[in-house]
């Protein structure tokens, strides 16, 4: 895979850059709860326990596997402990809804929101793939939506990652964007019970309709919402300079105090509504800002990737 164009660091994500986000194979896999930050690295990843289901194959035992699923015949033959896997465990899909619309193409610290979101989505895709799960997704773009059916192959993951990289480029032509509500509705039609669904967005248009679609989605898969923000999303500095979308510029110093307060209040209320919805519907919620390291999402608090709890 060869890329010859120059990328703006922290703004556009190259395919090679997103490939390098792949966590170590020994520390990949989603925990049975299916939620970011509750991952038990290297454990049995399926939400299914495998009891009374159709046998698929055996693999070497990993810490955290159910001892009741040990394949004693293979263990005795090979001298190494093996665990039985069942068909349902192999068919659990991972769905990633990634928001790369126009409002995500912004950042005041370290990187653009779109760049951070792209890295998060790539990490989730790699973890699902390395855990043996089908990985698919939807990318909300500046001109519509790109749909990727769930698959278990490395080629499919690379196609998804290549598309993510393409949609972070500044030269992508704008068109008619879909709302986040429409994206979640499409995601809901693709998810079946037991699936894992991840939504990576700044949730700028999280309105009543979007909340309704999110509640509907939560009835079937395990849902994790990852809110990607920038410090200027939360609060505008009263003596700031000028901000621009590339076409128009606004002088922050010219804004009235009540306008600055209304801006902060609207952001806080939107995040609080989203967090409340997540609590009420048993969905996971995480918020990352552009200066943050996305690796913080991917391990149990107090246990760094690559380390085991004692």
Task: Compose a concise summary of this entry.
By secondary structure, the chain is an alpha/beta fold. It contains nine helices and ten strands.
Q: Mind explaining what this structure looks like?
A:
This protein is an alpha/beta fold. Mean pLDDT is 81; it is low at 38-52 and 300-310. The longest helix is centred in the C-terminal third of the chain and has 24 residues, at 257-280. A 6-stranded mixed beta sheet has the order 5-4-3-6-7-10, sandwiched between helices. It contains 9 helices and 10 strands. α7 (208-217) links the parallel β6 (196-201) and β7 (222-229).
State the main characteristics.
310 residues, alpha/beta, two-stranded antiparallel sheet
> What radius of gyration results from the CA coordinates?
21 Å
Beta percentage is: 15-25%
The CATH homologous superfamily of the largest domain: von Willebrand factor, type A domain
Query: In DSSP terms, counting alpha (H) and pi (I) runs of 4 or more, how many helices?
Result: 9
Largest sheet report: 6 strands, mixed
The CATH topology of the largest domain: Rossmann fold
Indicate the CATH class of the largest domain: Alpha Beta
Topology:
Elements lengths: L14 H5 L35 E6 L11 H7 L3 E5 H4 L2 E7 L13 H18 L3 E8 L2 E8 L2 H14 L12 H11 L5 E6 L6 H10 L4 E8 L1 H4 L7 E3 L4 E3 L5 H24 L3 E6 L21
Parallel strand pairs: 3-4, 3-6, 6-7, 7-10
Antiparallel strand pairs: 1-2, 4-5, 8-9
Helix pairs in contact: 4-5, 6-7
């Amino acid at each position: 895979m060869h890329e010859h164009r120059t990328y703006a660091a922290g703004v556009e994500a190259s395919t090679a850059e997103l490939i390098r986000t792949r966590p170590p194979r020994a520390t990949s896999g989603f925990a049975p709860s299916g939620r970011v930050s509750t991952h038990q690295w290297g454990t049995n990843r399926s939400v299914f326990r495998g009891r009374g289901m159709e046998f698929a194959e055996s693999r070497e035992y990993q810490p955290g596997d159910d001892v009741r699923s040990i394949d004693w015949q293979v263990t005795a033959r090979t001298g190494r402990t093996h665990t039985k896997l069942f068909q349902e465990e192999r068919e659990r899909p991972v769905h990633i809804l990634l928001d790369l619309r126009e409002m995500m193409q912004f950042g005041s610290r370290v990187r653009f929101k779109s760049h951070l979101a792209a890295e998060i989505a790539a990490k989730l895709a790699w973890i699902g793939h390395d855990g043996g799960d089908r990985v698919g997704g939807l990318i909300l773009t500046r001109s519509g939506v790109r749909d990727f059916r769930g698959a278990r192959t490395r080629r499919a993951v690379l196609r998804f990652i290549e598309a993510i990289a393409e949609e972070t480029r500044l030269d992508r032509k704008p068109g008619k964007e879909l709302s986040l509500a429409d994206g979640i509705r499409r995601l809901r039609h693709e998810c079946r019970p037991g699936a894992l669904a991840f939504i990576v967005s700044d949730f700028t248009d999280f309105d009543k309709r979007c909340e309704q679609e999110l509640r509907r989605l939560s009835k079937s898969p395990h849902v994790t919402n990852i809110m990607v923000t920038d410090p200027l999303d939360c609060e505008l500095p009263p003596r700031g300079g000028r901000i621009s979308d590339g076409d128009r510029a606004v002088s922050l110093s010219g804004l009235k105090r009540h306008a600055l307060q209304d801006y902060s209040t609207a952001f806080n209320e939107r995040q609080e509504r989203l967090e409340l919805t997540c609590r009420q519907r048993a969905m996971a919620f995480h918020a990352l800002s552009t200066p943050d390291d996305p690796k913080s999402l991917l391990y149990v608090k107090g246990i760094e990737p690559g380390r085991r709890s004692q």
